[in-house]
Amino acid sequence: MGQGNWRIRKITDRFAKIAFLCATLFGIAFLGVLLYRIVADGAGWLNWDFFTNFSSRFPAKAGVAAALVGSIWIVLLTGPIAFFLGVGTALYLEEYTKKSWFTRLIQVNIHNLAGVPSIVYGILGLAVFVQGLMLGQAVLAGVFTMSLLVLPIIVVSSQEAIRSVPQHMRNASYALGASKWQTISRVVIPTALPNILTGVILALSRAIGETAPLVVVGALTFVAFVPASPMDPFTVLPIQIFNWTSRPQDDFRAIAAAGIIVLLVVLLTMNLLAVYLRNKYQKRY
């Protein structure tokens, strides 16, 4: 009886291993085919003019200058806002508040907000920032909306990073006469910083690929200028790609593939930066 159960478990284990392997290979093959089609269609359009030209109704003159600069504006302004608010919230919940029903309620709501569809944040941004604060279709309205979108993710990842700091390091700091803030600023934050930075950069990677919230707050689909200040109208790479895919000409689909390549390179660069910063600071602390 025992030997029969052992054989059944062994067969089940092999079957599960083969099934998981097939699922992994299927996903990799699908991704490989998709990347091949994108590169094959869009690589020929990647040149200097593509990066310096603005959107145009003529495929040969179309480019990503406005969309690329708009995406850079969004990331550069969203990052600091979301970082300070998210890390500050995580520090307060983990280091200052006592565990109670109220903190548990806040924690549950933060986790729920991390799973809210992005278009809901777009509706909130439209009501509060575009109409309430009268920012209109400015870069700043998009920045505030995307900050709200990534804030729950940064709070959760920062909390996990802070929890990973061993308690004996805090106790050693207190034993040496350090205050609460000295312990947090000189022990907790430096130790947790690699994982915090990783969470922040990955959250910004999500923000740079979002389309729905920015469409709701009024990001334009056709922009023939570079936003010079946070109060200027703007567009971003995902919206520009969506605009090209909706055009009837086949050349615009190829240009959209080139835009996807640019977006993928930006996302890959941000992820590599997250890995680099994490490894760098882990060696230091």
UniProtKB/TrEMBL annotation:
Family: Belongs to the binding-protein-dependent transport system permease family. CysTW subfamily.
Residue intervals of the ABC transmembrane type-1 domain: 68-273
Membrane topology: Multi-pass membrane protein
Segments passing through the bilayer: 20-40, 60-93, 113-132, 138-156, 211-228, 254-277
Pfam families, sorted: BPD_transp_1
Gene Ontology biological-process entries: phosphate ion transmembrane transport
Matches recorded under SUPFAM superfamilies: MetI-like
One MF term in the entry's GO annotations: phosphate transmembrane transporter activity
NCBIfam families linked to this entry: 3a0107s02c
Stretches of the chain forming a coiled coil according to its record: none
Subcellular location: Cell membrane
Identification of the protein by name: Phosphate transport system permease protein PstA
Highest taxon, organism lineage: Bacteria
Protein keywords: Cell membrane, Membrane, Transmembrane, Transmembrane helix, Transport
Any GO CC annotation of this UniProt entry: plasma membrane
